[in-house]
Every structure is written in structure tokens, then in C-alpha cells.
Specification:
It is a single chain. The termini are close together. Strand 10 and strand 11 form a beta hairpin. It is built from nine helices and 14 strands. By secondary structure, it is of the alpha/beta class. It has two domains: about 150 residues, Rossmann fold, CATH 3.40.50; about 100 residues, Hypothetical Protein, Haloacid Dehalogenase-like Hydrolase, Chain: A, domain 2 (2-Layer Sandwich). Helix 2 packs parallel to helix 9 and helix 4 crosses helix 5.
């Protein structure tokens, strides 16, 4: 079937390693839109990390953010759908992980608000007025799209194992890494992309998807054509049948140029 929709991860996939989007990629996205194909960014980023890129790339419409927990309208810069974590689930996880790991630290993305505990070390430098400092138990009263967990002494695999055990299948977990991301049960990039495509009347066989990390695997395997970039995680490269050039070599643009030309 002909491709009708392009779904692409951002960091490590469409964007270069420095976080920039290349002129070649911008031109490829323009060609995709000119050919009448829909374009959806599917990212772990919260909504605040997407508008500047959309403006630079000239992309509008809907974006899937926070690993599928939020659908964000790039034109109005508003969250239009959300799949938040249940407050009781957040409370239970925080208490259980504190019992298991004394120095554990939490943060969360609550719709458009970033919240963190005082001892949570964030890699993102935000102005103080854009960060809410609070105890993790207070997060349960917020519409949390994504709960994040760090521990200064634990190895990623050990932290992931502790979170997985404490969660007991009640949530979706992205890891292992030094930052574990937790979403509501069943909420993934693939689940939200599947729902969005169904509403748009686009079948899986009509989707081409690009990604690089294990949290992209679901949508890469679901799409009619799933493409990994050469710099992808070994787990992804071992499963996905089609591999393009790396993100820094504009691998996504390379495939999109060929797609538009062949169409």
C-alpha cells in the first residue's frame, strides 16, 4: 500500500546529536508535506521541547509527546489529549521505591509543567519560574503524563529492576537508563500512534516510522515500514529489518527523499 503518514522520533533519529535539525531534513519534510503525506512527530520529549522545532521545520498538526501520554497541537501550542497516571498509582510507586531505595529522586511532566523534588538532578536547564519544586507525593494531585525516577548510586539495570518490581505491571516503563520514565499502563508511542492513525483513516501498512531506541520498537514493528537509524540501540538494530544512515548523516531525510521521488 502507498505510504500516507510519516511518523518520526526526534532525538537520536531526525535530529543530529547536538539536537539540531539539518537543512537537508527540513527540505525533506517540506517535500513530504508537498506530496500530501501526513507528518507526526512521536517523541519522549514533553510538549515544551517541540514547538521551536516545528517552527524551524515548518511542521504543523499534531505531535505525540511524553512517550504517548500527550497529544499536542503544534498550531495552537496546546495539549489536546492526555493519558495521565492515576494518583493512587503514583503514591504507591513513590512510597514503595522510597522503601527500597533510600536516596531515590522523582520528577514529573504534568501536562505543561515540569516538577521535581529538590534532590532530583535534571539534565535540562530550565528557568526557575518554569520548574515547580515539590515532594513526589504531591505529584499525585497533578495530571502527570510521565513520572521520572533517578538514583545516584544505582546502576541503570538495578534501578530498572527495582522500578519494574515495585510497579508490578501497573504502568508502562521505559528503561533501563540512568533516568527511568513511567507512563500509565498501556500508554506507549505505538499505542497513541495507532489510535491517532485510526481516527485519520490511515492503516498500519500506510505508515512509515523512524526511531532509534527501545521505546520506538513498538511503532517500528507496527508500521508497514519501520526504519531504524544506523546509530540505533543494538536491541532495535537486532529486530528492525530496515536500517538507514545515522541521525548525523541525515538517515531519515535520505529515506524520505527516496520515498517522495518514487511516489
Amino acid at each position: 500500500m502507498a505510504i500516507k503518514l510519516v511518523a518520526s522520533d526526534l532525538d537520536g533519529t531526525l535530529l543530529h546529536s547536538d539536537g539540531a535539525i539539518s537543512a537537508r531534513s527540513v527540505r525533506a519534510l517540506e517535500a513530504v508535506r508537498a506530496a500530501g503525506l501526513a507528518l507526526v512527530f512521536v517523541t519522549a520529549r514533553p510538549p515544551r521541547g517541540v514547538p521551536w522545532l516545528a517552527r524551524e521545520a515548518g511542521v504543523g498538526g499534531l505531535a505525540i509527546c511524553s512517550n504517548g501520554a500527550l497529544i499536542y497541537d503544534l498550531n495552537t501550542e496546546r495539549v489536546v489529549e492526555e493519558r495521565p497516571l492515576d494518583g493512587d498509582t503514583i503514591t504507591g510507586l513513590v512510597l514503595e521505591l522510597r522503601r527500597r531505595l533510600a536516596a531515590v529522586a522523582f520528577a514529573c511532566e504534568a501536562r505543561l509543567q515540569f516538577c521535581r523534588e529538590p534532590h532530583f538532578v535534571s539534565a535540562e536547564a530550565l528557568p526557575p519560574d518554569q520548574v515547580l519544586i515539590a515532594d513526589a507525593l504531591d505529584f499525585a494531585r497533578m495530571p502527570v503524563a510521565k513520572l521520572m525516577v533517578r538514583h545516584p548510586q544505582s546502576r541503570p539495570e538495578a534501578l530498572f529492576a527495582a522500578v519494574t518490581t515495585a510497579a508490578a505491571g501497573r504502568v508502562a516503563i521505559v528503561g533501563p537508563a540512568d533516568l527511568i520514565e513511567i507512563s500509565s499502563a498501556g500508554v506507549t508511542k505505538q499505542s497513541t500512534l495507532t489510535e491517532l492513525c485510526a481516527r485519520l483513516g490511515v492503516a498500519a501498512d500506510e505508515v512509515i516510522a523512524f526511531g532509534d531506541m527501545p521505546n520506538d520498537l513498538g511503532m517500528l514493528m507496527w508500521a508497514g515500514r519501520g526504519v531504524a537509524v544506523a546509530n540505533a540501540d543494538p536491541e532495535v538494530l537486532a529486530v528492525v529489518g530496515e536500517v538507514t544512515a545515522s541521525n548525523d548523516a541525515d538517515g531519515v531525510a535520505l529515506v524520505l527523499e527516496s520515498l517522495v521521488q518514487s511516489g
